[in-house]
Amino acid sequence: MYTVILPSGTEAEIRELTGREEELLTNERLVRKGEAINKVFENCVLRIGEKTDITATDVLDLLAGDRLALLIELRKVSLGSDLDLNLTCTNPACGHEQVIAVDLGQLPVRPYPSERDFSVVLPSQTRITFGLLDGHAEKRLAAIAEPTVSTALMMRIRTINDQPPTKKTLADLSMRDRVALRREMQAVDGGVDTSIDHACEACGTRLTTRVEVEPDFLFPNLR
Q1: What are the backbone angles phi and psi of residue 90, rounded to the nearest 5°?
Q2: Which of 6, 50, 125, 163, by CA, is between 20 and 30 Å from 209?
Q3: DSSP characters for the chain?
């Protein structure tokens, strides 16, 4: 068993992944529904704070950045911190295959602020209140066939000019306001920076990805 501190400051206790979790992570039905990771968390998270009888609701109550941090920690205790990412150049004229070494223990971690509710006045003087993304919102997003930027924003906005948000009031926001709003949301988001930005060794094309979406992250040498 391993004790980890999440970006929110919450302490959790986890155990290593086993074959049971590998089966969950390769279950196409659970993956399509966005349930695979939640099932893994239910199995492998033994304690959150003082709570030891972890339920499905408990893992969904976790903030999105804490959930990503948990996934990174589960990978570290199960397979180690060293990760070799096999990337293929996206340039059709190149297609060069290369291996990028990543130390998961060195990924930047951004702590969450103590607040959970935020307010901002946008350039148009529109007043917005919003919250942080959690597992419940992530689950709803995963269930949407074609989520959009507006969908993700709607999950977090509490009020627009003191009224509940609607698709219309969100669509009516100017691009300047929406950019400012996303900037404010990003400023308070905690979590782990898992982004990879690598220049192809053969042609220099920029290859961008996130470590957790690559097969090598949880299934090294399995192609």
Answers
A1: -80, -5
A2: 6
A3: -EEEE-TTS-EEEE----HHHHHHHT-HHHHHTT-HHHHHHHHHEEEETTB-S--HHHHHHSBHHHHHHHHHHHHHHHH-SEEEEEEE---TTT--EEEEEEEGGGS-EEPPPS-SEEEEE-TT--EEEEE--BHHHHHHHHH-SS--HHHHHHHHEEEETTB---HHHHHTS-HHHHHHHHHHHHHH--EE--EEEEE-TTT--EEEEEGGGSGGGTSTT--
Q: Comparing C-alpha atoms, which of 10, 11, 65, 20 is closest to residue 42? A: 20
Tens digits of residue pLDDT in 64-122: 999 999 999 999 999 999 999 999 999 999 999 999 999 999 999 999 999 999 999 99
Distance CA 134, CA 156 (A): 9
- Sign, CA dihedral 26-29-32-37, equals negative
